[in-house]
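Help: read this over?
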Amino acid sequence: MCKFCGRAWVAASVLLAAAAVATAQETPRTLIERAIEAHGGLERLSRVRADWVKLKGTLYVGSQSVPFVAETTVQLPSQYRNVTEMTIDDHKHVLVHILNGERTLVTLNRQPQKIEPTALAEMRETMQLDRAIRLVPLLSDKTFDLALLGEDKVNGRPVLGLKVTAKGRKELRLYFDRDTALLLKTEHTLEDRSGRPVRQEEFYSDFRDMGGYKRPVRVAAYRDGRKIMEAELLDVKYLDRVDDAEFSIP
Protein backbone atom coordinates (compact mmCIF):
# COMPACT_ATOMS: atom_id res chain seq x y z
CA MET A 1 0.00 0.00 0.00
CA CYS A 2 1.29 3.48 -0.88
CA LYS A 3 2.45 5.08 2.31
CA PHE A 4 1.49 8.51 0.99
CA CYS A 5 -2.10 7.57 0.11
CA GLY A 6 -3.42 8.17 3.58
CA ARG A 7 -1.76 11.58 3.76
CA ALA A 8 -3.05 12.49 0.29
CA TRP A 9 -6.59 11.54 1.26
CA VAL A 10 -6.40 13.64 4.42
CA ALA A 11 -5.02 16.61 2.44
CA ALA A 12 -7.78 16.27 -0.16
CA SER A 13 -10.41 16.12 2.56
CA VAL A 14 -9.05 19.28 4.15
CA LEU A 15 -9.07 21.13 0.81
CA LEU A 16 -12.62 20.02 0.03
CA ALA A 17 -13.78 21.08 3.47
CA ALA A 18 -12.10 24.46 3.06
CA ALA A 19 -13.78 24.93 -0.32
CA ALA A 20 -17.17 24.07 1.18
CA VAL A 21 -16.64 26.59 3.99
CA ALA A 22 -15.59 29.27 1.49
CA THR A 23 -18.73 28.64 -0.59
CA ALA A 24 -20.91 28.69 2.50
CA GLN A 25 -19.41 32.03 3.57
CA GLU A 26 -19.91 33.62 0.15
CA THR A 27 -22.38 36.50 0.12
CA PRO A 28 -23.77 38.46 -2.83
CA ARG A 29 -21.38 41.30 -2.00
CA THR A 30 -18.26 39.15 -1.70
CA LEU A 31 -19.14 37.38 -4.96
CA ILE A 32 -19.52 40.69 -6.82
CA GLU A 33 -16.33 42.03 -5.24
CA ARG A 34 -14.43 38.96 -6.48
CA ALA A 35 -15.99 39.35 -9.92
CA ILE A 36 -15.05 43.02 -10.10
CA GLU A 37 -11.46 42.16 -9.25
CA ALA A 38 -11.42 39.38 -11.85
CA HIS A 39 -12.71 41.65 -14.61
CA GLY A 40 -10.29 44.52 -14.05
CA GLY A 41 -10.62 45.89 -10.52
CA LEU A 42 -12.90 48.39 -8.82
CA GLU A 43 -10.92 51.51 -9.73
CA ARG A 44 -10.74 50.67 -13.42
CA LEU A 45 -14.33 49.44 -13.79
CA SER A 46 -15.70 52.46 -11.89
CA ARG A 47 -14.14 54.83 -14.40
CA VAL A 48 -16.04 53.42 -17.39
CA ARG A 49 -19.14 55.47 -18.12
CA ALA A 50 -19.27 54.77 -21.84
CA ASP A 51 -17.88 52.28 -24.30
CA TRP A 52 -18.09 51.13 -27.90
CA VAL A 53 -17.84 47.51 -28.99
CA LYS A 54 -17.78 45.85 -32.38
CA LEU A 55 -19.00 42.29 -32.91
CA LYS A 56 -19.06 39.96 -35.89
CA GLY A 57 -21.13 36.83 -36.01
CA THR A 58 -24.22 34.98 -37.17
CA LEU A 59 -27.90 35.37 -36.39
CA TYR A 60 -30.11 32.29 -36.63
CA VAL A 61 -33.60 33.20 -37.83
CA GLY A 62 -35.75 30.16 -38.48
CA SER A 63 -33.77 28.04 -40.92
CA GLN A 64 -31.63 30.98 -42.06
CA SER A 65 -28.10 31.85 -40.97
CA VAL A 66 -27.61 35.60 -41.29
CA PRO A 67 -24.07 37.05 -41.09
CA PHE A 68 -23.86 40.37 -39.27
CA VAL A 69 -21.52 43.04 -37.97
CA ALA A 70 -22.74 45.15 -35.05
CA GLU A 71 -21.44 48.26 -33.33
CA THR A 72 -22.90 49.14 -29.95
CA THR A 73 -22.35 52.35 -28.01
CA VAL A 74 -23.53 52.59 -24.40
CA GLN A 75 -23.37 55.59 -22.10
CA LEU A 76 -24.67 55.15 -18.59
CA PRO A 77 -27.19 55.50 -17.21
CA SER A 78 -29.68 55.43 -20.10
CA GLN A 79 -28.20 55.93 -23.57
CA TYR A 80 -27.82 53.05 -26.01
CA ARG A 81 -27.20 52.82 -29.76
CA ASN A 82 -26.82 49.63 -31.77
CA VAL A 83 -26.12 49.55 -35.51
CA THR A 84 -26.34 46.07 -37.07
CA GLU A 85 -25.45 45.42 -40.70
CA MET A 86 -26.91 42.12 -41.92
CA THR A 87 -26.51 40.26 -45.20
CA ILE A 88 -29.68 38.50 -46.34
CA ASP A 89 -29.81 36.85 -49.77
CA ASP A 90 -26.72 38.81 -50.83
CA HIS A 91 -28.38 42.11 -49.87
CA LYS A 92 -27.16 44.29 -47.01
CA HIS A 93 -29.59 45.73 -44.51
CA VAL A 94 -28.83 48.16 -41.70
CA LEU A 95 -30.91 48.01 -38.52
CA VAL A 96 -30.48 50.77 -35.92
CA HIS A 97 -31.80 50.79 -32.36
CA ILE A 98 -31.49 53.93 -30.19
CA LEU A 99 -32.57 54.31 -26.60
CA ASN A 100 -32.15 57.77 -25.07
CA GLY A 101 -33.77 57.97 -21.67
CA GLU A 102 -37.47 57.43 -22.26
CA ARG A 103 -37.24 57.98 -26.02
CA THR A 104 -36.60 55.25 -28.57
CA LEU A 105 -36.05 54.92 -32.30
CA VAL A 106 -35.74 51.94 -34.64
CA THR A 107 -34.84 52.28 -38.31
CA LEU A 108 -34.30 49.73 -41.06
CA ASN A 109 -32.32 50.95 -44.05
CA ARG A 110 -32.85 54.50 -42.72
CA GLN A 111 -36.63 54.11 -42.64
CA PRO A 112 -38.31 54.53 -39.22
CA GLN A 113 -40.05 51.42 -37.98
CA LYS A 114 -43.02 50.99 -35.72
CA ILE A 115 -41.77 49.89 -32.32
CA GLU A 116 -43.73 46.95 -30.98
CA PRO A 117 -44.27 46.96 -27.20
CA THR A 118 -42.32 43.71 -26.90
CA ALA A 119 -39.38 45.20 -28.85
CA LEU A 120 -39.38 48.27 -26.63
CA ALA A 121 -39.44 46.12 -23.52
CA GLU A 122 -36.55 44.06 -24.89
CA MET A 123 -34.47 47.21 -25.47
CA ARG A 124 -35.05 48.33 -21.90
CA GLU A 125 -34.24 44.91 -20.49
CA THR A 126 -31.08 44.82 -22.62
CA MET A 127 -30.00 48.13 -21.08
CA GLN A 128 -30.73 46.78 -17.60
CA LEU A 129 -28.65 43.69 -18.33
CA ASP A 130 -25.82 45.85 -19.67
CA ARG A 131 -25.77 47.82 -16.41
CA ALA A 132 -25.76 44.66 -14.34
CA ILE A 133 -22.89 42.96 -16.15
CA ARG A 134 -20.74 46.04 -15.58
CA LEU A 135 -20.80 44.75 -11.98
CA VAL A 136 -19.98 47.98 -10.12
CA PRO A 137 -23.61 49.21 -10.32
CA LEU A 138 -24.67 46.06 -8.49
CA LEU A 139 -22.86 47.42 -5.43
CA SER A 140 -23.37 51.15 -5.90
CA ASP A 141 -27.00 51.25 -7.08
CA LYS A 142 -29.36 50.52 -4.21
CA THR A 143 -32.25 49.76 -6.58
CA PHE A 144 -30.67 46.37 -7.21
CA ASP A 145 -31.55 43.53 -4.82
CA LEU A 146 -29.13 40.60 -4.83
CA ALA A 147 -29.53 37.00 -3.67
CA LEU A 148 -27.35 33.93 -4.09
CA LEU A 149 -28.74 31.02 -6.10
CA GLY A 150 -26.19 28.42 -5.06
CA GLU A 151 -23.92 26.25 -7.19
CA ASP A 152 -24.53 25.06 -10.73
CA LYS A 153 -22.49 24.21 -13.83
CA VAL A 154 -21.95 26.09 -17.09
CA ASN A 155 -20.24 24.18 -19.87
CA GLY A 156 -18.76 21.82 -17.29
CA ARG A 157 -17.43 24.60 -15.04
CA PRO A 158 -18.74 24.99 -11.46
CA VAL A 159 -20.45 28.34 -11.06
CA LEU A 160 -22.14 30.41 -8.38
CA GLY A 161 -25.48 31.94 -9.34
CA LEU A 162 -26.71 35.40 -8.38
CA LYS A 163 -30.31 36.63 -8.70
CA VAL A 164 -30.65 40.33 -9.51
CA THR A 165 -34.01 42.08 -9.13
CA ALA A 166 -35.09 45.71 -9.40
CA LYS A 167 -38.48 47.37 -9.16
CA GLY A 168 -40.24 47.44 -12.51
CA ARG A 169 -37.66 45.16 -14.18
CA LYS A 170 -37.57 41.47 -14.89
CA GLU A 171 -35.33 39.21 -12.86
CA LEU A 172 -31.77 38.65 -14.06
CA ARG A 173 -29.60 35.68 -13.21
CA LEU A 174 -25.82 35.89 -13.41
CA TYR A 175 -23.51 32.88 -13.14
CA PHE A 176 -19.88 33.36 -12.14
CA ASP A 177 -17.07 30.82 -12.34
CA ARG A 178 -16.70 29.55 -8.78
CA ASP A 179 -12.91 29.73 -8.87
CA THR A 180 -12.08 32.66 -11.17
CA ALA A 181 -15.25 34.73 -10.57
CA LEU A 182 -15.50 35.48 -14.31
CA LEU A 183 -19.05 35.93 -15.62
CA LEU A 184 -19.85 32.86 -17.74
CA LYS A 185 -23.59 33.14 -18.26
CA THR A 186 -26.58 35.46 -17.92
CA GLU A 187 -30.24 34.51 -18.00
CA HIS A 188 -33.40 36.60 -18.18
CA THR A 189 -36.97 36.44 -19.47
CA LEU A 190 -38.32 38.30 -22.48
CA GLU A 191 -41.64 38.18 -24.32
CA ASP A 192 -42.18 37.22 -27.94
CA ARG A 193 -44.60 39.07 -30.21
CA SER A 194 -47.53 37.10 -28.86
CA GLY A 195 -46.62 38.03 -25.29
CA ARG A 196 -45.41 34.54 -24.44
CA PRO A 197 -42.45 34.54 -22.03
CA VAL A 198 -39.20 33.15 -23.43
CA ARG A 199 -35.98 32.46 -21.59
CA GLN A 200 -32.86 34.06 -23.01
CA GLU A 201 -29.45 32.73 -22.02
CA GLU A 202 -26.11 34.25 -23.01
CA PHE A 203 -22.83 32.36 -22.62
CA TYR A 204 -19.45 34.11 -22.46
CA SER A 205 -16.08 32.51 -23.10
CA ASP A 206 -12.49 33.03 -24.26
CA PHE A 207 -11.71 35.82 -21.80
CA ARG A 208 -8.82 38.08 -22.73
CA ASP A 209 -7.20 41.22 -21.36
CA MET A 210 -8.38 44.15 -23.48
CA GLY A 211 -7.05 47.49 -22.30
CA GLY A 212 -6.75 46.28 -18.74
CA TYR A 213 -10.24 44.81 -18.67
CA LYS A 214 -10.94 41.06 -18.79
CA ARG A 215 -13.60 40.62 -21.46
CA PRO A 216 -15.12 37.58 -23.20
CA VAL A 217 -14.22 37.44 -26.88
CA ARG A 218 -16.96 34.94 -27.70
CA VAL A 219 -20.65 35.05 -26.88
CA ALA A 220 -23.58 32.79 -27.79
CA ALA A 221 -27.27 33.49 -27.13
CA TYR A 222 -30.16 31.05 -26.85
CA ARG A 223 -33.91 31.45 -26.53
CA ASP A 224 -35.75 28.56 -24.92
CA GLY A 225 -32.72 26.41 -25.69
CA ARG A 226 -32.49 27.34 -29.39
CA LYS A 227 -29.39 29.17 -30.55
CA ILE A 228 -30.22 32.59 -31.98
CA MET A 229 -26.80 34.20 -32.18
CA GLU A 230 -23.07 33.58 -31.89
CA ALA A 231 -20.43 36.26 -32.22
CA GLU A 232 -16.88 37.30 -31.51
CA LEU A 233 -15.62 40.59 -30.17
CA LEU A 234 -13.55 42.42 -32.79
CA ASP A 235 -12.77 45.69 -31.01
CA VAL A 236 -13.61 47.75 -27.93
CA LYS A 237 -13.04 51.36 -26.91
CA TYR A 238 -13.47 52.84 -23.44
CA LEU A 239 -14.71 56.42 -23.62
CA ASP A 240 -14.87 59.29 -21.15
CA ARG A 241 -17.97 60.63 -22.83
CA VAL A 242 -20.02 60.17 -25.99
CA ASP A 243 -21.57 63.23 -27.66
CA ASP A 244 -25.32 63.28 -27.06
CA ALA A 245 -25.79 63.69 -30.80
CA GLU A 246 -24.87 60.01 -31.14
CA PHE A 247 -28.16 59.17 -29.44
CA SER A 248 -30.28 61.91 -31.01
CA ILE A 249 -33.88 61.07 -31.97
CA PRO A 250 -35.67 63.39 -34.40
In short: Residues 5-247 form a domain with the outer membrane lipoprotein receptor (LolB), chain A fold (CATH 2.50.20.10). Residues 38 and 180 are 7 Å apart (CA to CA).
